[in-house]
User: Fold this.
Amino acid sequence: MSNNIKRESPLKYFHRLSSKVANRSVGELFNGEAEFALVVQESPVISHLNLRGDANDQLFCSAVAEVLGLMVPRQPGTYHCNSEHSIYWLGPDEWLLVSQLAADELETRLRKNLSGHISIVDLSGGQTLINLRGKPKALRTVMKKSSVYDFEAWPLAEADCGRCARTTFAKAGALISNRADGSYDLVIRRSFADYIGQWLLDASQEFGCRIEGDSVN
Amino acid sequence: MKAVNRLGSGARTDSAKTINFTYNGKPLQGVAGDTLASALLANGVNLVGRSFKYSRPRGIVGHGAEEPNAIMQIGSGAGTVPNLKATQVELYEGLEAASVNGWPSVNFDLMAITGWFGRLMPPGFYYKTFMYPAKLWMTYEHFIRKAAGLGSSPVQNDPDSYDKLNQHCDVLVIGAGPAGLTAAREAARAGARVIIADEQSEFGGSLLASTDIIDGLPATEWLDAIVAELQGFANVQTLPRSTAFGYYDHNFVGILERRSDHLGLTAKTGARQRLHRVRAKQVVLAAGAFERPLVFAHNDIPGVMQASSVSTYVNRYGVAPGNDLLLFTTNDNAYQTAIDWHNAGRTVVAVVDSRLNPTGERVAAVTALGIQVMAGHGVIEAQGGKRVKRALVAQLNAEGTQVIGPVTKIACDLIASSGGWSPAVHLSSHTGAKPQWDASIVGFRPGKSQQQERSVGACGGTYTLRGCFEEGASAGAQAAMLAGFGDDSLMFPVPEVLDIQEQPQQALFLVPHTKSTSRAPSQFVDLQLDVSASGIELAVREGLESVEHIKRYTAMGFGTDQGKLGNINGMAILANALGQSIAETGTTIFRPSYTPTTFGAIAGRDVGELFDAERYTAVHRWHVEQGAMFEDVGQWKRPWYFPKQGETMQEAVDRECLAVRSSVGILDASTLGKIDIQGPDAAEFITRMYTNSYLKLAPGKCRYGVMLKEDGMIFDDGVCACLAENHYLMFTTTGGAAAVMAWLELWKQTEWPDLQVYFTSVTDHWSTATITGPNARKVLAKVCDDLDLSADSFQFMDWREGTVAGAKARVFRISFTGELSYEINVPAHYGRHVWEALMEAGEEFDITAYGTESMHVLRAEKGFIIVGQDTDGSMTPADMNMDWVVNKNKAFSFIGKRSLERSDSVRENRKQLVGLKTLDGAEVIPEGSQIVFDSKQQIPMSMQGHVTSSYYSANMGHSIALAVVKGGHSRLGQTVYCPLANGRTIAAEIVSSVFYDPQGERQHVE
Assistant:
């Protein structure tokens, strides 16, 4: 694909926007020096593939594992990751792959390795991955404002695996996962991105929040 | 200037720090730690309102949520809050308070005139008097509300923000008095996630005003230590100023936290109030108890207070609300008030005890102070105008039902009364647990637990401090264990307290008078709503028997205090009047909210622009920049039309529609639902869902389909394309996308799990630009050089993969306008780029962006239906004249096929889709208009159909409409009539639903 065409990430129009800190004495300072207790970072455009297949089929699992270098998670609500790919459990026969590799390249590799009744669908244009990090209290509070899910009940994530859940985030949906550094990753749909951006700025007003990202990449 | 009743610093106030505030415009001073009520009392202000019905002067009675009289309007302007209880309003600098009850003023009240005619306003007065004529109710209501003093709502938008937090915990403790604190500490030590909430400004409950010694420390010092200890646990959340207002199913509890109300109306600390939606594994209710007032004649005169409240004002706030106290009690516990008052250096004129021979330890202590105790007596009446001047005291019989001695007048300005305690069973009652009468505590205990909760301490009927500590600690340990933490053993020793020997109390719910109840001066049961003992007895005489009916008839417990003080007395008086026991009469059921809850907190942040999620397409910002007007389609914001400077909507739509048919238009169609379907059985599955067949649809080809529900009625429609072998893309309507996806999964998972097929929503992945019009091909050719666009190679209902403006695209040659059309799909990251490239390429053809309104007009010109507009869930394909889309010869049935054969589906005279052409072409029939065949008939007319779509068509030069008319397909050429609400009638001719290009030639332009 030609390089001179403009790509717009879903949260593009919120990059470098920040909420005004409602009250400095109440708002906690991020790292004691940064201005905002909460930072929302949109990942550069990366590949999102939906994968369907039979988890009980050894061949399917080993073929996927071979391409990704990751075991297919079969435990509900878990994900595995390495430096290039993440694979999230979405259902007994459904996973989300988020990858640094180009979507068509990854799809080609998978299809070459897989056979039988499977489905691979490119969703890269339709969703985006955002990372929420910040002071623990600010992060915890904003997550509680936004979702009914009990994220505190999750064990801490490790470098190569963690927990994930598709649940509500404000009045939209999101695939939410925890990371080893204590932050959260959210995979959200493009059409809801503006709403979620606006929601996060509003909900984190008491702490101060800034949205980061590369607008063109 | 020292306030007249300020004793100095109380246990929780600092008299060195003064706070200025105003009450009804008058500047006053309170001190740090005061509530509005304690500050008013300190300043000698006791008259705080007028009563609801009789407009009698009323004073501060209590010190918390139970307060019936001191109802205030706080602040002014947009942030003003009506109906707050002065006892719960923390004082802050600059606070403006105004009494709510009392019109036009508290001291001079026009309504007081009705007080003199009180006997003219019996219970049920409103039902009896204001019901007829019904049309005057609005007038009555206005007057009643104003007279009753229900406060005023701000008319401006609320300037504050509100929050909701979804909380999860193992143990939720409600109430941070002695029982709650020990419960929370045990649960916390066991490792459970604990939330402890209390409605007061600080934790402690009764300990805040206690003179007890705990573990060798004054109560308030012991309290500070345990609160600090709790705050030290990482697994404990402490929530002061937080009222648990509702206990719902599945151990879900609503808690309202007031975050800035104590700092002032304009304090900006983020959210003013926060609604905690707590899902708890276990709940410990330690909500305490309310002291029960004694019901005697004119017990509503300012200066009659709760005994425990008097102690609280003295001990906690350092305020003595009077000079000469007379204490009236039925129990030992209240004697502490006489001791506290005496220790404050003021005079106790007498203790009047209804019991014949009180001898408990506290009684002895009072006697030792030289205070006169009048055993076997009762206060039968208070006298005074705006303040108590004296009490009438008389000897009572042993049962407390009759006056048996002469009446003595005792001068005093404060009467503290205590009829024992009533457990706060409200939250337990919310769960469906019916409170049970227990004569041994003279009160209702919480009923059998319906959820994972237990009531401890005073709200369970345990009133000794030691008992509260013991119950709290073991409940905390037990709740933690049940939630998976600890082994139910106590980790801390139970705090040491001195046991004080108490004698049983007497059950006394109505103090007799020398006159009968109906003749005696009013003996008030519910102060807020002016319900008296005689009123309850009258209601019984009028034939009411059920406690629930009496409640509604007399309005007892209907106020903002929900009868926290009066209800038990009222039920006991009712039981007596009915000749029943209290247990037989029972209690009304308490429902949420425990105390009034602001709508702001319930709405939270879901207000204004965030009221609902707005979905945007990848091209949304371009539309905004072009000044588009938007239309809501589901949650999507779709461009409705693109007005140019000075254009009306009709002018814009006319211009857009003409441009499409004369040159080329462009539509953002990204919102259409798109479902990717893969698997060896994909074609078979799709063929079962649609009325037509897809088994022979080749890669590169598209087909239009209609989906039915089992009842044979049209549910959705759209185009389905074969992308590759075993790989399809289904388009759905914008509004139907989620429903269709669920529909497919439902049939796959529940009916045909054997079919190998997977569905994935790709709606958001693709951005779709539809270019349509005779010049569409020329525009596309300028930005796409790897596709053969010639009419022979890329035919109508074909799709091709190619590159458009540098982006990999799927181009579908399908049409919703009847013109040559290409729907160009690119991954949404490139949506705006490709759109702008198409606009640039189309410039020489004056390419025109159009919105949903023009889309509707253009498709109506072609008679294309919109599911949900022209259909309403009762239309078959045949009704829509679309039998051509139904293939009845498929090997496997399709959903809805059988229903198409039902007698009702094939009967004559079903409503059928037709076109309407108004006789006056300039007239546009309103959508939804009913259709009749004879405009001269009598009302009600025989309605024969209705208009589903109606527009002015610039291309046709006249208005067009689609309608469903009974037997419409055989009525072409007939004239029908649309009678309008304004009396006019529009005449129209039934015509074909295809107005424009009936042969469908235009989409085949070379």
